[in-house]
Amino acid sequence: MKEIPVIIFGVGGVGRTLIQQIIDSRSAIANSNQYHFKVVAIADSTQWFFVPEGLSDSELTTAIGRKAAGNPLGGSQRPSAEKLISMVVAAGVENAIVVDVTATGGMEPAIDLALEKGYGIALANKKPHAGPWETAQAYYNNGAVRHESTVGGGEPIIASLRYLSDINDTFYSCEGQLSGTLGFMCRELQKGRPFSEALAEAKGLGYTEPDPRDDLSGEDVMRKVLIMGRMAGWQLEQSDFEVESLYDADLADCSVAEFMERSSQMDAGLAKRFADAKANGKVLRYVGRVTENGGKVGLMELDADSPMANLKYIQFHTELYDEEPMMIIGAGAGLGMTAGGVLGDMISLARENF
Ligand SMILES: NC(=O)c1ccc[n+]([C@@H]2O[C@H](COP(=O)([O-])OP(=O)(O)OC[C@H]3O[C@@H](n4cnc5c(N)ncnc54)[C@H](OP(=O)(O)O)[C@@H]3O)[C@@H](O)[C@H]2O)c1
């Protein structure tokens, strides 16, 4: 049995689900691959646990239970991410996998240090891959860095892009509906519901980020499309994208409560756009699209009876998949799938790199 040390940054929804999946699948992973993931460190934004011999499953269960209940992680005060990696290295931990399931920016120095020390990286956090090309390029075409869950929440999007790139196919475009939250909003607006009412429901059901502007701005979708474009071989920057926000600029800086209260100011404009599309036999969907020249993220008209208007899809239009693009359809978000994508990356790293 090969013990693989694991360091996990982020104990939110995805991080907790991942830890539970590691615990639940121990015997299956041992039987099929002879690996044992030894979690040596877990960190949230303020605290961490570091046990070079590995935290026990009962210690891990207690820690994720505390976080799920809204309590602090319970460990000691956390050093910076970079210092944390240095401390793990100094303790003699070798061939570890660093997991980034935070949503935070600025993880690059820690990731770079971990790579320098021969560690593998598995991320659901999109920000390192969507940063400036100068820093992000080291993470592309790098066998030690896996990021399946950055796009499509665990569906094999990155794996498919890698496969098409490996067989030297020529990409023409990548596109898809990449936000479950915005998909929900479009379907509700199509039914004639006011934007503010649909948004209040989405927030109440926990479909949105705590600040719904993080979804409505389109920035998260843009990061996903940028990552797909870069996987297709195009050295694009965020500035190469036109991004349509679904809220007015004057609501950018107010509190979340005030934003929700004033969100009805978008009702009439969006209702008209959805009604106009309907009158043309079309529907509006929030779509991200990228070609070698850049991308566009926003509401786009689709034929009402086309599969794309009615499915959660991501598609690649390439030289080989020209008349009939390669399409991946299915739930593209959710804690179980996203954490599963990270666990799959950890197994691939263990299998291929160590
Ligand atoms: N949820 C999904 O369906 C889904 C799908 C695809 C991709 N993702 C991506 O997966 C990542 C995690 O999503 P989530 O839903 O689990 O987010 P979340 O619930 O907001 O959890 C984020 C976690 O990261 C921690 N964190 C923040 N800054 C940190 C730092 N510097 N070092 C260590 N930990 C830090 C937070 O700590 P505190 O607890 O102390 O605040 C929290 O535990 C995000 O990048 C998200 O975009 C999520």
Structure in words:
- The protein folds into 2 domains: 2-154 and 336-353, NAD(P)-binding Rossmann-like Domain (Rossmann fold), CATH 3.40.50; 171-330, Dihydrodipicolinate Reductase, domain 2 (2-Layer Sandwich).
- The chain contains 16 helices and 13 strands.
- The chain has helices at 13-24, 26-33, 57-68, 81-90, 108-116, 127-130, 133-136, 157-166, 180-190, 195-204, 213-216, 219-231, 256-262, 267-279, 307-310, 335-353; strands spanning 2-9, 35-43, 47-50, 76-77, 97-100, 120-123, 145-146, 171-176, 241-243, 282-291, 294-303, 313-318, 326-329.
- The strands form 2 sheets. Strands 4-3-2-1-5-6-7 form a 7-stranded mixed sheet, sandwiched between helices. Strands 9-11-10-8-12-13 form a 6-stranded mixed sheet.
- It is globular, with a radius of gyration of 21 Å.
- The relative contact order is 0.14.
- The model has no long low-confidence stretch (mean pLDDT 95).
- The structure holds NADP nicotinamide-adenine-dinucleotide phosphate.
Topology:
Blueprint: E1 2-9, H1 13-24, H2 26-33, E2 35-43, E3 47-50, H3 57-68, E4 76-77, H4 81-90, E5 97-100, H5 108-116, E6 120-123, H6 127-130, H7 133-136, E7 145-146, H8 157-166, E8 171-176, H9 180-190, H10 195-204, H11 213-216, H12 219-231, E9 241-243, H13 256-262, H14 267-279, E10 282-291, E11 294-303, H15 307-310, E12 313-318, E13 326-329, H16 335-353
Parallel strand pairs: 1-2, 1-5, 5-6, 6-7, 9-11
Antiparallel strand pairs: 2-3, 3-4, 8-10, 8-12, 10-11, 12-13
Helix pairs in contact: 1-3, 1-16, 4-5, 9-10
